[in-house]
């Protein structure tokens, strides 16, 4: 190995240690906790108890898990449909306009999930919500509450992840050689065709990485589903929190977390696999 | 209203609050010889620091160091770890009903000496927690009521019974607390339709009560975790009826909002905080002195006036005026949560409840 190679590996060491300490170790502890058993006199003790996983296999938890995955995928698709054209056009703006937009988007990242959830709760309420605007436009007779609802949860989550989606897609567009699109257009391709045959394939890896990031971010959201949704819209993450915080059942909460981790790993793997397959 | 959102923070109305409390290194070994007392963070702790601890110090000369305690799921394991090393992270801690029963099973509390708490006789038996051998481990600290609250514009005539929640005319209109261990709707259903909470003692009885409770699910528009959301919806008339905290509803009404709190004829739900002391807490005399102090009618009156909580002592012993009494409690016998039933059937109740509210 060259000196440069060794130096690079040494430079990786601090981040590897941090990842090891703060990601792998906690994950291993969660896995251990998921196998723990609970006794009245001892609390929860480490064991090799699979009953926590067995408890997951009821339709209620399976349905919650499927709902969570489906909800996250919908959020990914909607936010991608909104963010992709935005990031594309943003890359064509002048440097000054681009900077203003990027600062605006970055500023949105300072809003916490709690703040976003409660702001949307007001926006979707009957008294001071968006339905009042619809009434003033003559579309409805009287204002109505738009929460708790699945639409409310979707709106809140999409709003939460849009800045991430844009910021992850934008570098791909800014790096993209625009002359490729010009060449396609010169060769007679329609704007739509050049978009789908040149722009989309060129940015495919950015689409995959941003989708995966947003998927994972959404999967971990616990406040938005609680505040804007009814119990049937609560995700598995909400149930995990309930078990850990309110029911003091860390082993079962850990088992649910492990299942969620496996499911999301499966979805992420599938996304990467499909992305790779198409490239080949 | 910030007032009580903070006060009942231990219920973790939002995950943020829960995450904050989880992250807070609230339980630390304090230096010095002050009596270390932990209460639910937010309004409770602030009020105790402002009104109760100074009065205690003035009366006894014992200084107090105040702590905000994390959620019980964090405190109980910490008490267990501390007991293994024969230490105590605090001297006295206020626990919610369910949490105290769970800690008792683990044997992490100190057995208190009845003789050192003369004021204990002021408290009904349900505010004196005892183990199988009769040893005292928990003493009622304060309580609050959950009642039937309505918007006066939308529902001009106040309902008189919890059964109003089942009335079909309120389809998709009511608001209930989302967690079984703070809504206590099994107790409400059992008292309203089955003559009392005894039916909850068996699994068959619980199933019967759940069947009845399921009938009101179509009426529920909001299963709330965050008090602010419900209060706002109640004040706006968006949700005209639901279960809510008597004292906060009273404050909202006093501020001019069209809200009223009705103590139903079956009684309001009286949930409570209890003092416990970790097994190896050392200042034994001071601990008893403090619990004795808060068990006195004078302190309970002070709590009612300054913190807005309901007394855990007989009302006749206090010097509260009828107006002050109606602001925090009622003379109608309360519905007392069956903490024992919840602790015994926690997993089953939680799952049945979650399935019910998600349907």
Summarize this entry quickly:
Chain A has 280 residues and is an all-alpha fold. Helix content of chain A is 75%, strand content 2%.
Report on the structure:
The complex is a heterodimer of chains A (280) and B (359). With 280 residues, chain A is an all-alpha fold. Chain A has one domain (58-279): MetI-like fold (Orthogonal Bundle), CATH 1.10.3720. Chain A has 13 helices and two strands, in the order αββαααααααααααα. Chain A has helices spanning 3-34, 51-56, 59-90, 95-108, 113-123, 131-136, 150-175, 178-186, 191-202, 204-219, 223-228, 236-246, 250-279, and strands spanning 37-39, 43-45. In chain A, strands 1-2 form a two-stranded antiparallel ribbon. In chain A, strand 1 and strand 2 form a beta hairpin. In chain A, helix 3 packs across helix 10 (204-219). The longest helix of chain A is centred in the first third of the chain and has 32 residues, at 3-34. The radius of gyration of chain A is 23 Å and the shape is globular. The model of chain A has no long low-confidence stretch (mean pLDDT 90). Chain B is α/β, with parallel strands linked by helices and 359 residues long. Chain B has two domains: 2-143 and 271-328, 3-Layer(aba) Sandwich (D-Maltodextrin-Binding Protein, domain 2); 145-269 and 336-358, D-Maltodextrin-Binding Protein, domain 2 (3-Layer(aba) Sandwich). Helices cover 41% and strands 17% of the residues of chain B. Chain B contains 15 helices and ten strands. Chain B has helices spanning 2-7, 15-23, 43-60, 72-84, 97-106, 180-183, 185-193, 203-214, 227-236, 246-254, 284-294, 297-306, 322-328, 339-344, 346-358; strands at 35-40, 64-69, 92-96, 128-130, 136-151, 174-177, 220-224, 241-245, 259-262, 269-276. In chain B, strands 1, 2, 3, 4, 5, 6, 7, 8, 9 and 10 form a ten-stranded mixed beta sheet that branches. In chain B, helix 4 (72-84) runs parallel beside helix 5 (97-106). The two termini of chain B are 30 Å apart. Chains A and B meet through helix 5, helix 11 and helix 12 of A and helix 2, helix 4, helix 5, strand 7 and helix 9 of B.
